[in-house]
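Reviewers of the previous submission asked for a worked example of the structure-prediction workflow described in the proposal, so we include one complete record here. The input consisted solely of the amino acid sequence. No template or homolog information was supplied to the procedure at any stage.
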Amino acid sequence: MMKSKKDDRATRLQIEERRLIEELPLRGGIFLPTEAVPVAERVAGLKRVRAIYEWWWKREYAPRLRELRRQYAGKARCFIIGNGPSLNRTDLTKLCDEVTFGVNGLFLKFEEMGFTPTFYVVEDHLVAEDRAQQINAIKGPLKLFPFNLAYCLDEGPDTLFFNHRPRPNPAGFEFSTDASRITYTGCTVTFTCMQLAFYLGFPEIYLVGVDASYEIPKTVERHHHYGVAVLDMQGDDPNHFHPDYFGKGYRWHDPQVDKMVAAYEEARRVTEARGVRIRNATIGGKLEVFERVDYESLFRSVDGAATMSLFPRVLILDMTCLGSSSATGQIKKTLFTGWPEGRLTQVFAAGHGRFGLYRGGAAQAALDDPSDPAEAIAWCRSFDPDVVYFRPHDHPRYFHELALRAIDALGVPLVTHLMDDWPARAGARGLFGSDRLTRRLPRLLERSAVRLSISEAMSSAFEARYGLRFRAIANGVEPAVWQALDSERATRRAATEPLLIRYVGGLADDMGLRSLMDVAEVVDKLHEELGVRLEVHTTRTWKTKADAVFARSQGVSVHEAGISEEGYRRLLIGCHLLLIAYNFDARSVAYVRYSMANKMPECLASGVPVMAYGPMAIATVAYLAEHRVAEVVTTRDPALLETALRRFTGDPDYGQTLGARGRAFAFEQHPARAVRERLHASLSEAASQHG
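From that input alone, the workflow returned the following structure tokens.
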């Protein structure tokens, strides 16, 4: 019998399908279209999958995912919403203003919830096929799907495909810390969501509706097309929040709860080691891998006293704006990340006698007359703070005159944060150059409900000087953010590769300029012999000065560091040695001896070895030496500097080992989450004394 044209076409399509599958990296049945999809649609869909793998992943989707991480940097928490029966006992409306991950058939509950999740994730091809029409019609969330589901799920501006692969070791599970590169399967879509949430930088991840409890109906039909059994439902679904979730006519995979739990245990191990907490806010259920937390306790009435104690209304009075490129602007960003925007505002110095406002997550010029102190104070009154966070400094004088007036006018509890010993530098001329203000600092400190310093050394010195207790709060790092750059971090340097040193920071005469010049002189000598180079990355304010200082240096180049936060991190990881430098003269030591460099935890977290050059009297230098996490040169001697640099040029293994030790130390001792918790406790304690 002769074959019909229809049969010939079907045969050609089946041959083409097999060829396409051979060209894909994932060929297991669980990653491919099933027979439920017509062969012509399978072929067309596999072509889309191939195009993403070969072309669009690195050119479009990975950059979009990295941009998404920048967009959500600084968010305090997110919620992963499972689909267990406990959702019917959970008030999901409380999540409408939270960052949420919804999965699989959660769209059946969208109308009842009254909102759509921030992200919507599907990884199972059975769910994707059976619900393709409904999934493709979803509007609102950003849809995150593995590449292999592009055969049935549409591309579009609201859809982002990512590289999802089977676990490398079938005997265990692997948790990816860089979702822009790869994520791994874990027998549940929530494991995938955890990897995505970790990559996006959320320090706290809460699970809701993740019951981890299943009852397989007796009427279910089992099929074994590949390694995992496919369950074909013949009646209502008893395992999810809706009877039609996997109801009659829908397929799902054997849940394999034991493997889910093993995957969750790996997720807990990896995230905890990097300072991220996953907690289970599910009402009931059988999942006990993660610490449980009461769901209702995560929310409070916005106007209630409980919320005030959780997040008091904070007015920041500081000359540098929160989030600015200055060191103190960046440390404030670390400290106040996650603070609700409506409960935080700042007045800062905008230059030339003007005042600026920070509110709603951004700096704003909202004052009618930005040079009028009375208007700025009126703004402070209208905000009605529970507590004032004040960082006094000896310049600019006009700003601190305003700050003192505002503190007096408001009469609310005060938290004072000193970050360097400018009172010692002010010396005989007095605080801000005024006798009245000279007398004001001790009185301000006495009045403060809480006094903060930047280091334990500063706390001890100031306690002796002022007779008052201080708490040390310094900068911290987000381990997940640095882990996400692992694939881009400079690999081990070959012994023949010239050493590249980077200094990133300011060039103040009374901080580190003279010592930086010492290093430059030694680099020039080694540049001729070994090709050693020093890059100085500094702000526009200092670049002109740096160009003049290092104009004749052959081994030193100067660069303007007007870059994004991610660009800054990439700058740190892209060299062989990072330099921290402090001057040896008495004037500089008096100013910065108790300071803890804001960039120190970041340099250590980069995984690049750090060298500190400065006197042991400087707290940062002593701290690095005490914990043996950096190469430390504490005597102003060119020969010692040269010896240290030659060690790095001749022994790459030493640098690699030192960098790894510093990184582990930063992650363990300087996690940003712990720093924020200490500041939060201090501000809440002070605010509790409010009226």
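The chain has a mean pLDDT of 86. We consider this example representative of the routine output the project will generate in years two and three.
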